[in-house]
Amino acid sequence: MPLPPILVDPSALAEFTAQLQRETVIAVDLEADSLHSYQDKVCLLQFSTPTATVLVDPLATGDLSSLKAVLADGAVRKIFHAADYDIRCLHRDFGIEINGLFDTMIACQLLGEPKVGLADILNKYLGVELDKRYQRADWSKRPLDEGMIRYAAEDTRHLHKLAELLEKQLVAKGRLAWAEEEFALLEQVRHNSTDGPFFLRFKKAGTLEPRQLAVLEELLQWRDSEAQRRDCPSFKVLNNAPLLEVARRMPASMRALGGVEGMVPRLVKRYGGALLTAVEAGRAVPEAALPVYPRGEPRQRDPEAEARVALLKKWRTEMAKELEMDPGVLINNASLEEIARRQPSCVEDLAEVKVLKNWQHQVLGAGIVAALQN
Cys-Cys crosslink for 92: which of 191, 195, 234, 249, Cβ 3.0 to 4.6 Å? Predict the structure, then answer.
């Protein structure tokens, strides 16, 4: 099969966009460099119509504004697989919104598929085997080699047929409306803000005391600066686990630093001085200026509510088996816990809890109330 064209000129992109506007359905994907750059960016866009596949190089074209109208047009269906990250990146980098979404991964989840990765699904439904060699490739490098171009094209080339097959199954199971609600919610996701102290976005920071938090913040600021200098993701400078242990133990010497779990000699030699400087800076923060990890109002333990959660989880397991779905896709734990706490006595009261999507309320509402009453 010949290689698909790669558009690198704004005028060629505008001409291609005009072609897309005449389509009723297009398949879309993107490749980014999140594993290779400090600030990940969209490096390639893939589009497949029912008859052709075209790649767009945003690093060359720069301006993607000509795509905004067609991608925001809900009358043109956009087929993605696992669209969450793509939608966030397109809006962050280019202000592009997606409407008219059909996400084949969500469709698979609602159909109860045990494996929902694109490679697994294409192999099951279409007998297509994807080459996984380029999943972790650096898509910001130019020129793209032939293998990467073919890999990128394969990600969208089969989505039209796949979506057609999945939609038929959703209709047959009476779940198309479920999927459409999920698609509409997913269209609204946006990239998370990175404002505020670094420790607020650090897993397990809430386990530290204020002094340790001050040290952690200094360590995270150093790591971020180093990642910017090297233009690489922060985790490639130093993983979270040893960083957390350094903050917890606050070593004051190279010897003590070398005793921290995960701080192998190579890391101590390379970063030891900078880490000890950050620890010292955290130790020097005045008591009155120490950070405090924000916590919600402590909720008192409620054995009766916990018993209701257990009942609801048991009911969920049975319901998921009946619907042949993953229990977590059917309804998540956080929703069950809120319902158990509020203890609605009828379906109308359940609607006031406001944790269920419309399809969940219709399909699960009566069963949830019955489980609570039992």
Answer: 191
Selection from 35, 37, 32 nearest residue 227 by Cα: 37
Give the number of other CB atoms < 10 A from CB of residue 235.
12
Residue 32 token pair:
């980014």
- Round to whole Å and give the CA distance between 55 and 230: 29
pLDDT in tens, the chain (374 residues): 789 999 999 999 999 999 999 999 999 999 999 999 999 999 999 999 999 999 999 999 988 999 999 999 999 999 999 999 999 999 999 999 999 999 999 999 999 999 999 999 999 999 999 988 999 999 999 999 999 999 999 999 999 999 999 999 999 999 999 999 999 999 999 998 778 999 999 999 999 999 999 999 999 999 999 999 999 999 999 999 999 999 999 999 999 999 999 999 999 999 999 999 999 999 999 999 999 999 877 677 889 999 999 999 999 999 999 999 999 999 999 999 999 999 999 999 999 999 999 999 999 999 999 999 97
Amino acid at the residue 85: Y
SS (H, E, C) 220-263: HHHHHHHHHHHCCCHHHCCCHHHHHHHHHHCCCCHHHHHCCCCC
DSSP assignments along 295-349, one per residue: -PPPPPP-HHHHHHHHHHHHHHHHHHHHHT--HHHHS-HHHHHHHHHH--SSHHH
**Helix, strand, coil in percent for the chain, rounding step 5:** 55, 5, 35
Q: Tokens 């010292």 sit at which residue?
A: 280
Strand, helix or coil for residue 98: coil
DSSP 53: E
